């Protein structure tokens, strides 16, 4: 079998990526129940997962998907707009609207597609978007694709955002775009202050609750519920691929907003709809989230324990944050990869995060807790981390 010749510039860029310690390899991963996984044939405790409520392996969720398969088949065959919106899609939209306490909901094939499509449809060259520095790549890409004027701010320095809002004039829309929980830091957006600024300067708040849906709020609706600002946020975006344990993105809101999105967002109009079996699974997962709040309680208890223990170690930096995402800042990408390998050898899979996912000089281990992790898992992880720190950091 012959292959086309690879352009020289690709080889050159690959050499540069390897030299910078940023090369990413593909590997085969097999998820298991109870917070475990198989990686290259070895069983590990999985601290790299966003399955915060351990629902992707829940027997009830699996059974719901399995029951829909014989009737509906595997694929959806078309976009939702053409002929791909089945009764399972409609049922999930209704379930999401009930869960979020809104009029209606609309589905997207992924959270990335939701963010990219919604922002690029919402804004144009006459508008100004105010984007948090730590926003997910899908939000940033949506902002860029829109063609709007882009202003970057830091959620821990809202004085700059206020100054930018003050000096923005004209008839264009002003849109504040933010994650509720920042995926690589675990820090929370100051939603009350952001809503205050939006109301003061006639701006719109667009919120991605990807890492908050199912995790925050008395009912699990997210950080906007936790902080009491749901009615002050114009567009609330969520994902089904993290705490809900399935896949896809969604927006829940007033009828007029959902109708507008249905008619305007290209990533929804021109994408094949989610498989019906996934919709059936997500319906069951949402039911479990509402009926079993102890999953959230346990998740936060385990996260608080591990974060407190890590912050007592002077040789590493663990920024203040809340919830199941705990970053261990190591700065150097090579050191980050060494320590991730050490931890894997000790039986733990931890995300090794390097630029361009995070800014230069902030390479880190991203520890992600789920409610499946036992306290003994966390204690064993701390011992393995201490051994790696002694070998790689404290001996320097």
TrEMBL record:
<comment type="similarity">
    <text>Belongs to the class-II pyridoxal-phosphate-dependent aminotransferase family. BioF subfamily.</text>
</comment>
<dbReference type="GO" id="GO:0009102">
    <property type="term" value="P:biotin biosynthetic process"/>
</dbReference>
<dbReference type="GO" id="GO:0030170">
    <property type="term" value="F:pyridoxal phosphate binding"/>
</dbReference>
<dbReference type="GO" id="GO:0008710">
    <property type="term" value="F:8-amino-7-oxononanoate synthase activity"/>
</dbReference>
<feature type="domain" description="Aminotransferase class I/classII large">
    <location>
        <begin position="43"/>
        <end position="385"/>
    </location>
</feature>
<dbReference type="InterPro" id="IPR015424">
    <property type="entry name" value="PyrdxlP-dep_Trfase"/>
</dbReference>
<comment type="subunit">
    <text>Homodimer.</text>
</comment>
<dbReference type="InterPro" id="IPR004723">
    <property type="entry name" value="AONS_Archaea/Proteobacteria"/>
</dbReference>
<dbReference type="InterPro" id="IPR001917">
    <property type="entry name" value="Aminotrans_II_pyridoxalP_BS"/>
</dbReference>
<dbReference type="InterPro" id="IPR004839">
    <property type="entry name" value="Aminotransferase_I/II_large"/>
</dbReference>
<dbReference type="InterPro" id="IPR015422">
    <property type="entry name" value="PyrdxlP-dep_Trfase_small"/>
</dbReference>
<dbReference type="InterPro" id="IPR050087">
    <property type="entry name" value="AON_synthase_class-II"/>
</dbReference>
<dbReference type="InterPro" id="IPR015421">
    <property type="entry name" value="PyrdxlP-dep_Trfase_major"/>
</dbReference>
<comment type="function">
    <text>Catalyzes the decarboxylative condensation of pimeloyl-[acyl-carrier protein] and L-alanine to produce 8-amino-7-oxononanoate (AON), [acyl-carrier protein], and carbon dioxide.</text>
</comment>
<keyword id="KW-0093">Biotin biosynthesis</keyword>
<keyword id="KW-0012">Acyltransferase</keyword>
<dbReference type="Pfam" id="PF00155">
    <property type="entry name" value="Aminotran_1_2"/>
</dbReference>
<keyword id="KW-0663">Pyridoxal phosphate</keyword>
<feature type="modified residue" description="N6-(pyridoxal phosphate)lysine">
    <location>
        <position position="242"/>
    </location>
</feature>
<protein>
    <recommendedName>
        <fullName>8-amino-7-ketopelargonate synthase</fullName>
        <ecNumber>2.3.1.47</ecNumber>
    </recommendedName>
</protein>
<comment type="pathway">
    <text>Cofactor biosynthesis; biotin biosynthesis.</text>
</comment>
<keyword id="KW-0808">Transferase</keyword>
